Amino acid sequence: MINENEVREVLKSYIDPYLEADFINSKIPVNISVVAETINVEITLGYPFKGSKEQEDLTHLLQRAFPEAKINVCLTWKVEPRMVQPGLQSVGKIKNIIAVASGKGGVGKSTTAVNLALALVAEGAKVGILDADIYGPNQPQMLGVTTRPTMTEQKAMKPIMSHGLQSMSIGYLVDQNTPIVWRGPMVTGALLQLLNDTEWDALDYLIIDMPPGTGDVQLTLAQKIPVCGAVIVTTPQDVALLDARKGIEMFYKVKIPVLGIIENMSVHVCSHCGNREPIFGLGGGQKIAREYDVSLLGQLPLTKSIREQADSGCPTVVAEPQSDIAMLYRQIAKKIAARLSLQAQNTSTSFPSIIIENN
Question: 94-341 has which CATH code?
Answer without folding.
Answer: 3.40.50.300
